[in-house]
Amino acid sequence: MCGICGIFGTKIEKSVMDKMMAIQHHRGPDANGSFFSPNGSASLGHNRLSIIDLSNSGAQPMCDVSGRFWLVFNGEIYNYLELKSELTDYPYHGHSDTEVILAAYERWGEACMDHFIGMFAFLLWDEQEQLLFAARDRFGVKPLYYAQSGGVLYIASEIKAIREAGFFSQPDTQTWATYLTTGLHDHSSFTFWEGIQALPGGHCLTWQNGQINERCWYDLAERIEPGSDLRSHEDVEKEYLALLEDSVRMRFRSDVPVGINLSGGLDSSTLLYLVQQIQGAQSDVAAFTFVTGDPNYDETPWVEKMLASTHHPLILCELHPEEVPSLARSVQQLQDEPFGGLPTLAYARLFEIARSKGVIVLLDGQGMDEQWAGYSYYRGNLNNATPIVQGINESFVRPECLNPEFARLARPFQPAQPFHDNLSNMQYRDLCHTKIPRALRFNDRISMRASTELREPFLDHRLVELALRQPQQRKINPTAGKLFLRQLIKSRLPASVTEAPKRPLQTPQREWLRGILRPWAEEQIEIGLQNQRWLIPEMVRAEQKRFYVGESDNSFYIWQWINLGLCQKT
After folding, report:
1. Among the four residues 1, 30, 358, 504, which has the most C-beta atoms within 10 Å?
2. So what's the pLDDT on residue 492?
3. Quick check: is 419 in a domain?
4. Is the pLDDT at 555 greater than 80, yes or no?
């Protein structure tokens, strides 16, 4: 787990590469390394967070035995041991998964990615061909950004590293307009900075002689046919459970301590059950959950019930309202783009505490709702082809408070609908364009801010593909979602867990913003109003008052405006 960066097409001063690595230091505080092509055409930088093979043989940039291929890599190839046993002709010098990428690339070329189970973003420089190959994992768990100017390519794990290299960039008004009118945070290749692009999940690019070629190497829609798995429920359950166990088992491969993030919901309960199956009933893997002191949003009773008959220590990670202003400023500095409010801050606190306890790797349950149609809006829109952006209605934003000329800059959001049924199209949208890309960006930054690694076992592509092939009746009925998962786990967990209603993981955001945090919220919104002409001040202030007196229970647009103010300071 690391930070990576590179500049291609011009001779780069070491001081510039040092700046890029320094600003990504949080992503890898254990070691730094760099490579400069002898002819000055390429440079690579790496910040190392040591997870697998803690010795110097795992250091990066890493080259193959011939010196032709140079690699910097962020992420984990979880099946590296299986691949290593297959790629036996490579002269390995250590025990890291990084070397396995080099071995796989030498054997299969760009097709090596089809063999990987994992999360990854990497830059692989071919010194002989003077060619860069860069790639990002299937769902974009690990980030990669790039910009090009005058034939020179800048590329890094985080936007700030590209800007630190001297790429001047203004806020992208179209992306901001889209966000403020629709609520859309992340989709496709657009970022909130002009000229800086995100390489989408499941995409790769090559650069040679100043020319970029980007392509999609993994499209979920091409890998599945919804409803095509007509096997018996028992056969599917057997395969899915085996894949679940394999996915979690692989994600415990680590040379540093591993913990788990728990809420009181079905997904976390399933994760805990799998950990128990794999680690054994005596497992003492630490469990972390965040709390805010508000009983209306407290998952502790559910988590304690889950852990009652186990040996897992529970570590409560508290977020207090007086911590929010400084924590929000710190998190914004590392997000580079708007983030998701108090839940993101509470999660950031969790990673800080995990790191302070010596736990460097954490697992969580992201992805089950999208696989098995767990959100209520999946059931409410089965016959409605109109997409709901990120699972919210347009009423959650306030486009009428925007300057009309600015609002018209918003890009239309029309995600592909590759399937015949609306449910599968909504699942595809959420997995590939809205909810998962947004959550993964938030979570990558807050985990790496604390120099910790977050692993997502339920986003294993094998699980996602199998789930989306199932017929609709295995996923939902008019009153419930995740039917298959509930039935699978029913005999393995207490009924109080499997039959518990779906509860969104929330914080008292609206209560705090109306109460103790109101002065701070007003200050941030005023900063945004003073520094941008995007909003109509009198309309914004009128909507604020409506929110503060309880005429609106929606705090989404309030946080958008707060975020606008926070971004002026970073």
Report:
1. 1
2. 86
3. no
4. yes
Q: Are residues 480 and 354 in the same domain?
A: yes
pLDDT value of residue 493: 79
Asked if 233 and 298 sit in the same domain, the reply is yes
Tens digits of residue pLDDT in 355-398:
999 999 999 999 999 999 999 889 876 555 444 444 444 579 99
> Of 3, 7, 136, whose CA–CA distance to 60 is shortest?
3
* Range 59-64, long-range pairs (CB < 8 A, 24+ positions): 59/31, 59/33, 60/2, 60/33, 60/98, 61/33, 61/34, 61/35, 62/96, 62/98, 62/99, 62/102, 63/35, 63/102, 64/102, 64/106
DSSP 395-457: GGS-GGGB-HHHHTTPPP------SSSHHHHHHHHHHHTSHHHHHHHHHHHHHHHTT-EEE-G
Where in the sequence is the domain holding 65, given as residue range(s)? 2-218
Q: Is the pTM of this model over 0.85?
A: yes
pLDDT band at 167 (very low <50, low <70, confident <90, very high): very high
Q: Which helix (H) or strand (E) holds 164?
A: helix 159-164
By the 10 Å C-beta count (0-12 exposed, 13-18 middle, 19+ buried), 420 is classed as exposed
**Per-residue pLDDT, 503:** 58
Radius of gyration for the alpha carbons in the chain, expressed in angstroms and rounded: 23
Residue 250: give its domain's CATH number.
3.40.50.620
Q: What's the pLDDT tens digit per position in 53-90?
A: 999 999 999 999 999 999 999 999 999 999 999 999 99
User: Which of the listed residues 479, 498, 517 is the one where a domain comes to its end?
Assistant: 498
Q: Give the single-character DSSP code of 165.
A: T
Answer yes or no: is 401 within a domain: no
CA distances from 438 to 143, 335, 344 (A): 11, 11, 11
For the purposes of burial, counting CB atoms within 10 Å of the CB of 21, is it exposed (0-12), middle (13-18) or buried (19 or more)? Answer: buried
As for how many domains the chain has, the answer is: 3
DSSP structure string for 506-526? --SHHHHHHTTTHHHHHHHHH
Q: Is the peptide bond before 501 cis (omega within 30 degrees of 0)?
A: no
3-class secondary-structure state, position 373: coil
Reading the block at residue 405, the tokens are 């000329």
Q: For position 531, what pLDDT does the model report?
A: 87
d(CA 558, CA 547): 8
Which candidate, 394, 427, 429, 436, places its Cα nearest to that of 415?
A: 429
Cα–Cα separations (whole angstroms), residue 112 to 117, 200, 567: 11, 18, 39
> For residue 63, what are the β-bridge partners?
70
Q: Are 508 and 294 in contact (CB under 8 A)?
A: yes
Alpha-carbon span 473 to 481, nearest angstrom: 10
185 domain residue, yes or no: yes
Identify the H or E element spanning 44. Answer: strand 42-48
- The rounded distance, in Å, linking the Cα atoms of 305 and 308 is 5
What are 424-440's pLDDT values in tens digits? 999 999 999 999 999 99
Question: Could you tell me if 213 and 282 lie in one domain?
Answer: no
